Structure to design on (92 residues):
C-alpha cells in the first residue's frame, strides 16, 4: 500500500473523447524506446484493445491532468471502492 493521506477534493472527470475531438492534424514523430519500454507499450495496447499510439496519447492526456492538478496545489491518488485513498501518486 502506498502513502495514505486523507484528502477531500471534488472528483474531476477527464473526457478523453472531447480532448481527442479537438485534434485537427497529425504531426509525425520519431520515437526511440528501449526494448523493455516498447514491450510494455505493446502489452498495454494489447490488454486494452487499442493501438500503441492511443496508449501514448492517453498517457499525455493523463500527464496533462496531473500537471494541472499540481499547478492547482492538488494531489493525485487512487481510491478504493469506499472512496478512501489507497495510494497517493507522487513524483510525476
Amino acid at each position: 500500500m502506498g502513502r495514505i493521506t486523507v484528502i477531500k477534493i471534488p472528483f474531476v472527470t477527464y473526457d478523453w473523447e472531447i480532448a481527442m475531438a479537438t485534434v485537427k492534424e497529425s504531426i509525425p514523430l520519431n520515437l526511440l524506446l528501449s526494448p523493455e519500454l516498447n514491450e510494455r507499450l505493446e502489452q498495454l495496447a494489447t490488454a486494452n484493445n487499442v493501438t500503441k499510439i492511443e496508449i501514448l496519447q492517453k498517457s499525455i492526456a493523463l500527464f496533462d491532468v496531473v500537471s494541472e492538478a499540481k499547478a492547482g496545489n492538488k494531489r493525485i491518488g487512487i481510491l478504493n471502492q469506499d472512496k478512501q485513498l489507497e495510494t497517493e501518486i507522487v513524483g510525476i
